[in-house]
Amino acid sequence: MGKRRKQRKAAVDRDVISRLPDEILCHILSFLPTRTSMATSVLSRRWRYLWEKVQVLDLNDDFLYTHDRSDEEAEECFINFLEKVVSGFNPLSKVRLSCRADAYGYRRLFEWIGSVSDRVRELYFSTRTDRMTYTLPFEYIYSTSLVSLVLDGNINIIFDDVNLDGKMFLPSLKNLELHIDYLNIDVFLSGCPALETLRVTLIKFTTREADFDLEAIHMPRTLKSLTFEERYHYSEVVTLERLQLDTPSLEYLHLALRCDYKRILVCDYTNIKKACLDIWPKPRNVTWVPKLLGALCKTKFLWLKVSTIQCLLPAPVLDISDFCNLIQLQLDFEDFKAKLLIDLLHHCPKLQALKIYVLGSYDGEDNFYFYYLNPHKHNGWRQPRSVPKCIVSHLNTVEYRGYQNTREEHEFTAYILQRGLVLKSMRIHAKYYCPGHLKWEISQALSEIQMGSSMCRVEID
Fold this sequence. Notes:
- The protein has helices at residues 2-14, 22-29, 34-39, 71-88, 106-117, 185-189, 283-295, 306-312, 338-345, 365-372, 389-393, 407-419, 436-447, and strands spanning 56-60, 94-101, 122-129, 134-137, 148-152, 155-158, 175-180, 182-183, 197-202, 216-218, 225-230, 239-244, 252-257, 260-265, 274-279, 301-304, 328-333, 353-358, 397-403, 425-430, 457-460.
- Helix content is 28%, strand content 25%.
- The relative contact order is 0.05.
- The protein has 461 residues and is α/β, with parallel strands linked by helices.
- It has a 15-stranded parallel β-sheet with strand order 1-2-3-5-7-9-11-13-15-16-17-18-19-20-21. It has a three-stranded parallel β-sheet with strand order 4-6-8, with no helix packed on it.
């Protein structure tokens, strides 16, 4: 017995973690899911009630949905536990919930959200519904304490014609992420005067419960990071009077717009570092996309997706400012357009990395053979009168995905290899259905080009 006591004592002496103060142990447990922190209660008396002092609640209800329990029983069990948390546990600073909601329990669940929203600093709520969309009254997230709010699921936030009269219902909020069905975004943002990070994904602009006439969207001037995506159906026709991006502190911008905006208000984004544009080529959008690009001229990273490229193609002359700080440019084409690409390169004097991705509208093996056996197809290439400055002085990496070996692509690639005096790497990724012998032919054709850079390595796969 004496030997065993000594072994237990030695084990206790080695347990340095258990001797730490409660504050430090609770801080460590706050990074774990709540079920995991609860499991530490079996370690020893020291740990039995420690998890109850953690001010972070992180729960997923998946473990409750078992074969011997109905969905209604599982939801009842989960909500009952949440209600006990509010009434009996220590104050919470952060709540993260991922759970199901249906017509049986969503009201109690939303009421619980309302009961904690004005007590916590961070709230993450993700719900998986039974294909129904449920209404979350804005009063449930009216909070002076919230600094970060994330809502994800089939949720409508309805204001019920309440006259907010300029009230700041989320005055401390700095981070907001909404991936929901419906929201009057302009009214919501008017109540968030301190917002710095905004991520919004909207599925609808109207609902059966509340149709409204949204004239404009005004983004808060305090924003540093903005991701705004619309995912309503292509057949819907939605026209807005104005999109106001008067956000001078903006550092990151990602726009995915399907609405038809009559005009856009921008400013000089002196702090911008990264921008991604996916703007649907509606008639009015086409007119202001170059204006937006001009405002983003100080960005270091720029990604133009297929829809934005379609907005730029109708312009006979690309009238934009030089991207004086741009070091990486990614362009997504439906069909490769060398002229547009060269025009853009003329405005990127310090570009170091160029990424080209051709999605192609001709998928399938039969169409592949048509493309590869007709290399004259889509030959719109003419060498520019002057070489873009970046090609001879800064461009060191080119990556081309979806290469189809058209004459236009081959001649453009040859042009870059010949003129690229500091080029280090050219990576060509052919279409995934490209046969091996045609890849060999591509490789042979490119190997015959006299390259301007002795250190350039060409890779083809």
